[in-house]
Specification:
Blueprint (H helix, E strand, L loop, with lengths): L3 H20 L4 E4 L7 E2 L3 E21 L5 E2 L1 E2 L7 E11 L3 E11 L4 E10 L15 H13 L27
Parallel strand pairs: 2-8
Antiparallel strand pairs: 1-3, 3-4, 3-6, 3-7, 5-6, 7-8
């Protein structure tokens, strides 16, 4: 039969291990304003979301297209960590795919990243006058395929007409 001291020791060790594991968990982060793979027509977006961590969030940074890190605007600071943070940042977009990384750090200096891809398709793009959200390439491929493999009509045939071609063997040269 275990002693009372042994049972208390096991409980204390379990509690300390649980606290240590909880403190080592990375912060969680969500982007709420846009979804990865989304196509937008504006040349800039306001990206926003939430972050949370029991130790408190201390830094929220954003990078676009592997550029420099920018501070996001949020409801906390390094000196005022928040368990639940809301954040936003205004980002200019390049034509085509834009890689956005959001980095969150907690007061224990643990980090988490969230990566999304936003496609910018400006209304001035020359795509035959068709503006398609998300599936523009697919539509273009289908249109090209339809044009390339359209049904060929046989040429009109005249009634009761025949074409006769006479082929003669070549003559051998005289010696």
């Amino acid at each position: 039969m275990p002693t009372r001291k042994f049972v208390y020791s096991v409980i204390v060790i379990y509690a300390l291990a649980s606290m240590s594991l909880a403190a080592e968990a990375a912060p969680s982060i969500e982007v709420t304003s846009h979804r990865s793979g989304q196509t937008v027509r504006d040349g800039a977006i306001t990206l926003s979301g939430t972050a949370s961590d029991p130790d408190g969030i201390t830094v929220i940074l954003v990078s676009i297209n592997r550029g420099p890190w920018q501070d996001a605007t949020w409801n906390g600071s390094r000196d005022d960590p928040k368990v639940n943070a809301t954040w936003s940042v205004r980002l200019p977009l390049l034509e085509g795919a834009n890689l956005i990384v959001v980095n969150v750090t907690n007061s224990a200096n643990e980090t988490a990243n969230k990566t999304i891809l936003i496609d910018h398709s400006s209304p001035q793009s020359d795509n035959g006058g068709v503006i398609v959200a998300g599936g523009g390439i697919t539509l273009l491929v289908v249109l090209i395929a339809l044009l390339a493999f359209r049904v060929k009509r046989s040429p009109p045939q005249a009634e009761d007409s025949q074409t006769v071609v006479k082929v003669e063997a070549p003559k051998e040269p005289d010696e």
